[in-house]
Amino acid sequence: MVEILRSEWDAPEAVALRAAQRAELDTRYATSDHEAGPVPTAESMAVFVIAWSEGIAVGCGGLRFLGPGVAEIKRMYVVPASRGTGVSTALLRALEAEAGSHGITRLLLETGVRQPDAIHFYQREGYEPIPAFGEYGSDPLARCFARLLHSGQSLENRSATPVKPR
């Protein structure tokens, strides 16, 4: 069973998961320069969560608030051994629930052309392709998506994994 818990940005498990994500992206894109804009920080991330399975941190994700009613999903990552097990879905549902609890009605995200698995996942989950936004506008490898959350019922017919404090 997967448990989604709130985390501090600088918690050791959060740092390790983000480092693993960076290493994977470095390999996929053959560069360590894959941040189109400012690097996320503890101050810029409104919410950060970690997925736990049998006491092991297996995934993470966060929200950066962009403006009234709008947030961006950042640093969503699942370790390769846990992909295809429902961890990604649990993380996304938890982030959507957190967004809804903060009055967010539109979620945005950016992934890249060399992450077809992520593109497929987000489209399957109801995220629609949109023009590149913000700092991603000049990045030819960026693929951006958005999903409207329903006011007062942010997860329309979607069961969320409750997010608990750690």
UniProtKB/TrEMBL annotation:
Residues 2-150 form the N-acetyltransferase domain. GO terms for molecular function: acyltransferase activity, transferring groups other than amino-acyl groups. CDD domains: NAT_SF. Keywords: Acyltransferase, Transferase. Signal peptide: none annotated. InterPro entries: Acyl_CoA_acyltransferase, Bact_Acetyltransf, GNAT_dom. PROSITE patterns: GNAT (PS51186). This is GNAT family N-acetyltransferase.
